[in-house]
Amino acid sequence: QRKQMLHDLTVDRVCHKIRIITSEVSYWKQRLQDLTQPSNLKFRKDLERQKFELEAKQSELKDKIVVLESNYKEQLEIQQQLTPRAIEGGWEEQVGINLNNTREEVTRAKQELIFSVRKKLLNVTEQIDELQLEEDEAVFNVNDLSLRRQVEQNDLWNFQ
What we know:
The protein has about 160 residues and is mainly α. It is built from 4 helices and no strands. The longest helix is centred in the C-terminal third of the chain and has 69 residues, at about 90-160. The protein starts with a helix and ends with a helix. The model has no long low-confidence stretch (mean pLDDT about 95).
């Protein structure tokens, strides 16, 4: 009789454990299903599109900055090579204006790159990474818990 009670308690404990694991599997399967619904997939595709556009904008701004900085260096070289005759002709003033304009353009482009495009790109990338992490976690948990449930069921089968 004592043996039977211990056997029954052990079976109940294992059955309870299997029910808990089954509940967890159901939760993670539902979570995975929620993450892969069309509305969430559309949101993710929108984020991917935004990321692509922001990366293109970032590349464009970097190229623009390189060109502007190159122009700025050329203007500095021109300023250093001005002859007295060119200075009398007003070229020094014009080169100074060009330098100021180019410097301002470089500053605006760098500000847009750092404070607008990169900031948005980091935000979008974090959202994409977070969604992927949630999906990976759900897949892992479904697989892991399903395996654990199967092991517990096998142990129960072997025990009985």
